[in-house]
């Protein structure tokens, strides 16, 4: 029972740490947007140059990540009050994730180190298998109907409809099509699975030592 309790607590902390880290890395992957400027023909959709779009996208990421930037000011797009409110709501979630990450990533790293020292990392193998299975189901559903998953995701996280952007009042949405958001979700899972994969490998090593 004691071992099962430790497995549960350690598993939750380490998985949440991996989640927070994967979200942080995904949000800061400006390179993914830069690739899509040409891949999704965003210059045609917005009428802006790649440099102009890159600059405003960096402003969005900086606003979402940095607490000392109080308001979003885009240089090449105008925004409605609802649009700005949605970015503000997203900023709150991102800031919360960053705080969780600052706490749990070091704690998770310490717990993982302690498990490795005692050759108990194998305790995390089952939780990782469960989380991976659930994640693969979500990914499969995304490929079947990403729009519904995207809508459900917003309905869970936001209590208003400000996330529904009108290109006429918030033209910034023209450079953020659904395909780009789907790629962001997939990139998140790449980072997440990467972190879990390293831990799983450590777990298999600890089993061999036993």
From TrEMBL:
Listed Pfam families: Lit
Keywords: Membrane, Transmembrane, Transmembrane helix
Transmembrane portions of the chain: 12-33, 93-113, 120-144, 180-201
Superkingdom: Bacteria
Protein's name according to its UniProt entry: Integral membrane protein
Native source species: Lentilactobacillus sunkii
């Amino acid at each position: 029972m004691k071992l099962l309790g430790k497995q549960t607590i350690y598993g939750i902390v380490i998985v949440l740490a991996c989640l927070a880290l994967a979200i942080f890395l995904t949000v800061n992957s400006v390179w993914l947007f830069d690739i899509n400027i040409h891949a999704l023909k965003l210059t045609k959709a917005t009428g802006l140059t790649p440099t102009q779009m890159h600059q405003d996208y960096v402003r969005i990421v900086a606003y979402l990540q940095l607490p000392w930037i109080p308001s979003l000011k885009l240089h090449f797009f105008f925004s409605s009050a609802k649009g700005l409110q949605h970015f503000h709501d997203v900023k709150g979630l991102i800031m919360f994730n960053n705080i969780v990450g600052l706490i749990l990533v070091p704690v998770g790293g310490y717990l993982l180190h302690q498990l490795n020292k005692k050759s108990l990392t194998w305790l995390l193998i089952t939780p990782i298998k469960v989380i991976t299975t659930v994640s693969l189901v979500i990914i499969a559903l995304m490929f079947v109907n990403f729009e519904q998953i995207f809508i459900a995701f917003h309905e869970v996280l936001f209590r208003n409809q400000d996330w529904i952007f009108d290109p006429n009042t918030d033209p910034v949405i023209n450079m953020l099509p659904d395909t780009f958001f789907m790629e962001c979700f997939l990139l998140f899972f790449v980072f997440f699975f990467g972190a879990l994969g390293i831990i799983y490998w450590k777990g298999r090593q600890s089993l061999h030592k036993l």
